[in-house]
Structures are given as C-alpha cells and as structure tokens.
Amino acid sequence: xxPIVKISNLDKYFGHLHVLKNITLEIPQRQVVCLxxxxxxxxxxxxxxxxxxxxxxxxxxxxxxxxxxGGEKGAQHRQLVHDVRLKTGMVxxxxxLFPHMxxxxxxxxxxxxxxxMDRKKAIELAEQNLDSVGLLFKKDEYPMRLSGxxxxxxxxxRALTMEPRVMLxxxxxxxxxxxxxxxxxxxxxxIAKEGMTMVVVxxxxxxxxxxxxxxxxxxxGELIEDAKPADLFSNPKDPRTKALIDRYRNDDN
Length: 253
Known about the structure:
By secondary structure, the protein is α/β, with parallel strands linked by helices. The protein contains 9 helices and 10 strands.
C-alpha cells in the first residue's frame, strides 16, 4: 500500500539544537498513529513539520503525493507547502477560535477564504461536521459561551470542513479540565472509525492503547519504538519506553 504520509531522513535544528534526528516514517491511509514520549522529546515538532508549521532543516515530507524538500525557499517551495497544508487538518492544544465570529463562521472561514469554496457549500459541509461532533445546536453561539471541550470539538469540525486527507492532533486534550477530556476523545474515536488517517501527539495512553493502530515513541529527537499498542504496552523493547509506560500506570492507579 502506498503511504499517504512519507517522511524521509528528516532533521530539524533550532539554532545549534538538534531537535529531530534523521526521522524516517511511513503512514498508510486510514491508519491511526499515536506519538508518545516525555515533554521535549520532539513529538510536537515532528507533527508541525508534517504541515510545515515548522520548516524541516533537511529531508523530505510527502503527503498524498505532494513531496516537499525541507530547507528550500522560493515560489515553488511555497506553493508545495500550500498544497500540503490543504491536505492536512490541524487541531492544536489551544482552540484558536476567532472570538468575534460565531461557531458556524469560525468553521466556514477556512474553506471560503483559503480554498475559495462556495459559501453555501461551506455552510452545508460545516453543519454536517458540527452535527458529527454533536454541536450543530451551538452553530450561532460565540466561543466565549462554550466550554473548553465544546471549543475543541468546534476546532475539530473546522479542520474536517477543510476536507483534509490527514488529520494532525497536537495534544488536543492538554488544555482541558479532566471531566471534559472524554467528550473530545469520543469525537476522535468516531473520526478514526470513519477511516480518517490520524497522527496524534498525546499523553492519553488509554486512547493510544484503545484506538491507535501504531504507537511511536520518541526520545531526544529520535523514534525509539514503533509497534502495535498491544505489543508496545505489554512488551516495550527500549528501557525509556518501559519507564514511560510504568509512569503512566503509576499515575493511573
């Protein structure tokens, strides 16, 4: 199967700091991949390199047939980055909703402005996605009147309305109160069941265990393990992975 995401020999430097070290990774279509690791291990930087929110220093990223070499400049490079971004939806830790716009206006802004989608079609698609995340009844509300969990679900609907081929989630529950995490996780599980390719940076080991097809472990800018959840959680190969899982089990008890 041809991978929908292909990362080859990826390096990322911040000044002299080498934060991603020769990452090579392929993700088939419809697969759910969770990235776990301690804070500062490079998980979010890797995710942000996939859609060029961070420019890779070396190596290449390919998403759905669009290949971009890291570290290049010029009009052609900018166009390829734009094309990759159209194929990737991104959900951040913070919700990044426009406070002066209603929920519906937030969700249609990208398709109309960035993709040039007909407004009527964008509204129809937005309402479908808001219904999918259980928030169609909030379409005329403003973000200040929503809970954190509702804001994140709107952010997911907004990303889906761009009709991405791949969804990227950067610790989507880390800014939420514990009682609100479940509602966002349930929406993500639903999207996974519907066949969306997903790359999820998360500290929610339960989600990684129950939903992911693969779990990747990062440490000090390197991928140190890549395994099915059942194998990884029952028999981690690297001692750093074992320490991470043990800490999760202790926190869970």
